Fold these 3 entries.
Entry 1:
Amino acid sequence: MRARRSVRPVRAVAGILLAAALALTGCSGAGSDSGGSAADGPARSEAKGSAPGGQKDASGAAAKRTPKLTGSDIIRTASLTVQVRDVPKALDEARTTTENAGGYVGDETTTRDPQGHEHTRVVLRVPAEKYDEVLAGLQGTGRLVERTSKAEDVTDQVVDVDSRVRSQRASVARIRELMDRATKLSDVVELEGELGSRQSDLEALLAQQKSLKDRTSLATITLSLSGSPAKKAAKDDEPGFVDALAGGWGAFVTMLRWLAVAFGAVLPFAAVAALLALVWLRLLRPNRRESGERD
C-alpha cells in the first residue's frame, strides 16, 4: 500500500511539470510568433515603403542618367524690303549691326533705276540667337515695305545624318582592318575599291552635316534697300498767271519753230526764183531793149 501511495505523488508531480512545460512552450511559441510578426510588420511595411521608394529612386537615377535633349535644330531665313532716304548710309548701318552681332555680310548687289534711285540687295548671316534682335534693328532703318520669314525644323534630319556619319566611319574602319589582314592581292584590290566607295559616301555625309550645322547655327537675312522716290509737287486744279505765261511762251516758241520749218521749206524755191529774176534783169531784159531800139 505504501508503494502505491508513493507512486501516485510522483506521477502527479510529473503531470504538473509536464503541463507547466507545455504551457511555457505554448507561451514562448506565441511570443515568438507575435515577436516575429511584430518584427516582420515593420520589415514588410519598410519593404512595401521601400518598393515604391526604390522604384522612385531607380526612376530618378534613370532620369539623371538620361542625356538631356538638345534644342531643336531650326533653319531660319527672312527677307526684308526697306525704303530709306540714303541707301549707302543704311547699308553701312546694316553691316555694323550684323558684325556687332557676330555675323558677316555675304553677297551684295547694287543697281540704279532710270529715275536715279539706288537699290541694294545684300545677304546677311547672323547667329541664330541674335536673329530676332538683328531683324528688329534692320526694320528700323527706314519704312518697311515687305517682310517674310521662315523657320524649318531639321532636327530629325540632323540626327539621321549624324547617325549615318557614325555608321559610315565604323564601316570604313572595318574595311581598313580587313585590308590589314588580307594576304591575297585580289582581296586587297577588291577591298581598296570598297574603301574608296565608302570614303566617298562618308565625305558626302560630312559635307551634308557641315551644311546643316552652318544653316542652323547662322540665320540668313536678305535685305533689300531702295531709295525714297522724289515727292511730286501738288498741282492746282485752276491754272494761274504763271501757268498761263508758261503756256503762252510755249505756244510762241512752237509758232517760231513752225515758221522756221516753213521758211526752211520755202527757201530753196525762193533762191531759185531770185536767181531767175536776176538773170532776167541782167541778161534778157537789156537785150530786148536793144532789139527794140534798132527796130
Entry 2:
Amino acid sequence: MSYEVDTSTVRGMSAPTTPGPALPASLPSTPATATAITVTAVAAAPIRARRGGLLDWRVRFAILSVVWGFSFLLIKVGTEAYAPFQVALGRVLFGALALLTVLLVRREPLPRGLRTWGHLSVAALLLNTAPFSLFAYAELSIPSSLAGICNATSPLWGMALSLVALSEDRPTRRRFAGLGLGFVGVLTVLGAWQGFSGVDAKGTAFALLASLCYPIGWIYVRRTLAGTPGSPVALTGGQLMISTLQLALVSALFTSAPSSFPLWPTLAVIALGALGTGMALQMQYGLVTEVGPTTAQMVTYFIPVIATTAGVLVLGEQLHWNTPVGAAIVLAGAALTQTRPGARKPA
C-alpha cells in the first residue's frame, strides 16, 4: 500500500496505491498484490511529471498488471511447500530487502520518531501481516483465481467503510448502485443460486476478510500518518520491516521450521516479495509520476482477469461460466463506486 494524490474519497483497491504530497482519502492490493497488492507509503514532496523513461508507460503498465495478477498464483505455489504464515513472511521479507536496497542506493534514511513507527506498526498489521496471511490460508482450499476475484472487492468494502468513517465522503446514488452491483457480482462468482455448492466457505471467507483489511488499514493510515515526512520508499520499507518482525514472531509460535526448500515454491515466494512488492511498487511510483494516479490505479481492474487466466492456464484450475461473469460484475460495481459527482457551477 502507498498513497495517491487524490484527496476526496476512500477507494479500497487490491494493489498498492500511488504516492502523493498528502495522504489521500481515496485509495486503490495488493496483491496484492497484489497485492494487491499490497504496503504503505506517504509522499512528502509534490509529484513532478517525468517523461522519457527507459520503457514506455504502457509497457510498464502491462508488466505491473502481470506481476500483480500472478501474485495469487505465486501464493498458491508457495503454499505447496510452506505454511501460510511462512509464505507471508517470505513475501514481506524479500519485499523489504528490495526496498531497503533502493534506499541504500539512494542514500535515503528510514523514518524517524516513535510515533511514526508506532503507526507504521498498526499499518503493517492491517495492510501486510493480516491480509497476506489470510490470502495464503485461503488458497489452501480455494483456487488462486477465486482469491484474485475476492481481492477485487476491496473497493466495495472501502466505499462502504468510508461512508461511516470519513465524514467528508458523501454517498451518491451511483456509488450505492455500484456497491449493490459489486456484491451481486460476488454472489454470482460464488454461485449463490446453487446454495454455494462446491465453494469452500472457510477459504472464501478468509479471502474476503483479507480484502476488507485493506480499506480498514487505509482509513487508519489516513487518520494517523497524513503529512508524515519521508519518501514513499522509506515509509514503505519501514512498514515491511515491521511486518517481517510480526510474521517472524507468529511463524515461530505457530509453525515449525521447514525441513526442505523445494525449488519452485521457494522461487515463488522470493518473486512474490522481490517482484510483487519491491519492483512493482517502484514501477507504480513511476507510473503515477508520469501519467497520474487516475490512470495508474486502473491496473487494479486487470488483476482479477490475469489472476483467473493464470490459474486456469498454468495451474489447471476449473473455470465455470459464473466466475468470469461475476468477476465482470464485481469490477463494474467497483468502477461505479469510484465515480464522483461533477463539480457544481457557481451561481
Entry 3:
Amino acid sequence: MSAPSAPSAVHPTALPVATESGRPRRRSPDWRLRFAALSLIWGFSFLLIKVGTHGYAPFQVTFGRLLSGTAVLAVAMAVRRERLPRSTRTWGHLFVAAFFLNALPFSLFAYAELTIPSTLAGICNATSPLWGMTLSLVALSEDRPTRRRVAGLGLGFIGVLTVLGAWQGFSGLDLTATAMALLASLSYPVGWIYVRRTLAGTGASTLALTGSQLFVATLQLGLITPLFTSAPDHFPLLPTLAVLALGALGTGLAVLLQYGLVEEVGPTTAQMVTYFIPVIATAAGVAVLGEHLSWNTPAGALVVLAGAALTQSRARTSAGASRRVAGRSPVAGGADRPGRGRRRVRQRHDVGGGE
C-alpha cells in the first residue's frame, strides 16, 4: 500500500490528445479527482484487510486480493493491446519483484491486522519512505545523505516511537504483529531498489510489467496458500466483498490511477498521495470499525509524515530533472528514454505497495 516514490498525473483537455504513437488519448477526469480517489482507495485498504481477515485466513485474503487485482489489469492490458514481456530474464526479475512488492508485504499486513488495529497498520505503512531513504543511501550510489534527509530520518524514528507509546513500554501492543507491519513497509523499498537496478530499460510498458508482476505474485500465493490453510467451506458476504474490493480497487484500479497520474503530472505530485494514506486509514478505522485512538497515535503519525517528507526532498528535485530529460528525448515510445525509464521504475515501488 505504499505510495510510489514519485507519481504523476494527466492534464485535462477539451479534445483528445495525440499520444506519441499517434493514437488519440481519451479525456480523463481532472487529475485532482483521480488523486483524491487514489488516496481514498489506498487509505481504505487497511480497513478492507481488517474486514477480510474476519472471514478468511491472511494468506487467503492476500491471494484473493492479488487474483482480483490481476484480473483488472489483465482487462486493461487486453483493451490497450499490451504485450507481455518475452525475456526469460525479465520474468526472473519480476519473480523477485513480485515477492518483495506484493506477496510478502500484502501477506504481512494481513497477518498483522489479525491483532493490531487498521489505524496502526496504516501508520506503519507511512514509514516506507524512511526505510527507503536508509536503504538507498547504502544501495544507490547516486543518493547521498544531506542534513535535511538525515534530520527527516531521525524525526520519523521519533514519530514511530510516539505512535507506539515507547514511554509506556509499548503496553497493550502486539509487538510481533507491529513488527510484521513495519517489515511489510520495509519490503516495499527493498523491491523498489531491486526493480530500479534490474528492470529499467526493458522496453516493456509500465502497465505490462505491473500486470505481469501481479500475475507472478498471484502464482506465488496460489502455491503457498494451500500449504498453510485449507479451502474455505463457506464465503461470508462482507469479508468476501472486502477482499474483492481490496483487489479490484486497492490493487487493480489504484495501479491504473497511479499509472495515469505518473504519465500526466509526473512522480513528484503523485508522490504526495503517501501523506494522505495514513490520515484516511486512521479516520476510516475510527469511524467505521470503532477502533480506539489515543492522542499519541495521530500526533506520532504527523511526526512520521513530516520526517518522510524531509527524506524525500532531494528525490523530488531528481524527479523533475528526469522529466526535463524525457521531454527532450526524441525516441518515440520512450522505451529507451532515461527520464521515462526512471519514472517507470519509481512507479513500480508503489505497485508493490499499492496499499
